[in-house]
Every structure is written in structure tokens, then in C-alpha cells.
């Protein structure tokens, strides 16, 4: 069965986010004075095969732990759905 996932990787609370700080400063310099904080992260869209939802979740957890996110500095969560479905399941 084909699965589609959106994986969101973010820095853990308390980890410095220089990219987010740079973006926030740039927005303020463009006149968006109401911007106080920006947090940068990654969005990865992954299409893959798995036998069922449990196997798909396990595969995503392994992908995140082994390559997509640094568990010391980052968290990862995902939205998972079978190809062709409109709504999905959220995991982390």
C-alpha cells in the first residue's frame, strides 16, 4: 500500500534558532514590526510503501530517528495518510 507523509522537523525548545532570528529581523526591517518571533524548521513530503498503518508509522519513526531529525536538537512529527485519502493520522 502506498502512503504519503508530511514530516515536520523543528528545533527542541531552548535550542538557539539563528535562522528564525534572521528571518524575524528581516521581516521587521521590511516594516513588519508586529513580528516578535520566528521559528524555522523543515517540511519533508515522503511517498513510500508499507503493508498497513502500523508499519507505515514504524517506518516513519525509524526514518526520523535515523536520518531526518537529530534527536538531540530536533523533534519530528508527521501527518500520514494512505494515497488517495484526504484526511490523515498525526504521529510523532
Report on this model:
The protein is an alpha+beta fold. 30% of the residues lie in helices and 34% in strands. It contains two helices and four strands, in the order βαβαββ. Strands 2-1-3-4 form a four-stranded antiparallel β-sheet, covered by helices on one side. It is elongated. The chain starts with a strand and ends with a strand. The mean pLDDT is 94.
What's the SSE blueprint?
Elements: E1 2-11, H1 18-29, E2 41-49, H2 53-68, E3 74-82, E4 89-91
Antiparallel strand pairs: 1-2, 1-3, 3-4
Based on the model shown, name its key terms.
alpha+beta, 2 helices, 30% helix, Mth169, Chain: A, 34% strand, 92 residues, elongated
Short description:
A hairpin with a 6-residue loop joins strand 3 and strand 4. The mean pLDDT is 94. By secondary structure, this protein is an alpha+beta fold.
The CA-CA distance between the termini, in Å, is: 21 Å
Into which percentage range does the β-strand content fall?
25-35%
* Largest pleated sheet: 4 strands, antiparallel
Total E-strand runs? 4
CATH class: Alpha Beta
Number of helices: 2
Amino acid at each position: 500500500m502506498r502512503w504519503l507523509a508530511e514530516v515536520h522537523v523543528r528545533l527542541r525548545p531552548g535550542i538557539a534558532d539563528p535562522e528564525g532570528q534572521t528571518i524575524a529581523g528581516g521581516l521587521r526591517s521590511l516594516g513588519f514590526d508586529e513580528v516578535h518571533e520566528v521559528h524555522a524548521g523543515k517540511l519533508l513530503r515522503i511517498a513510500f510503501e508499507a503493508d498497513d498503518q502500523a508499519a507505515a508509522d514504524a517506518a516513519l519513526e525509524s526514518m526520523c530517528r535515523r536520518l531526518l531529525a537529530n534527536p538531540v536538537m530536533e523533534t519530528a512529527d508527521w501527518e500520514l495518510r494512505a494515497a488517495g485519502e484526504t484526511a490523515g493520522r498525526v504521529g510523532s
